[in-house]
Amino acid sequence: MSSILFFFVPTVIFMGLVAPLWLVLHYVSKSRSAKGLSDDDRHTLTSALAQVERLEERIGTLETILDAEHPQWRETESGHRYQDSTRS
């Protein structure tokens, strides 16, 4: 009988007090971390957006150069892709 109480009482205490408190605190901390970006994440996102803008400018410049030197480059390139995909 005493061995059953030895395991039963701590189990009841754990399931009644510790487990619910543990779950509540776990999900409270999860909701806090999901609310917003950390400073490091915000800095990484800002630098990635700046790099995207620079790359978009470079692509625009390259397309302008290609349009001036080879006005039909868009049609030619799409035609080559179509021919390459039909050969396979």
What does this structure look like?
Helix content is about 90%, strand content about 0%. With about 90 residues, the protein is mostly helical. About 0% of the residues are buried.
Number of helices: 3
Number of strands: 0
Largest sheet: none
Structural class: mainly alpha
Q: Any low-confidence stretches, pLDDT <50, length ≥5?
A: none
Helix content: over 70%
Amount of beta strand: under 5%
Q: Could you state the order of secondary-structure elements as H and E?
A: HHH
Report, as a whole number of angstroms, the end-to-end distance: 78 Å
Evaluate the radius of gyration.
31 Å
Shape: rod-shaped
What is the averaged pLDDT score? Answer: 84
What would you say about this model in short?
By secondary structure, this protein is mainly alpha-helical. Helix content is 90%, strand content 0%. The protein has helices at 2-34, 39-69, 73-87.
What's the topology here?
Blueprint lengths: L1 H33 L4 H31 L3 H15 L1
Distinctive features:
3 helices, 88 residues, mainly alpha
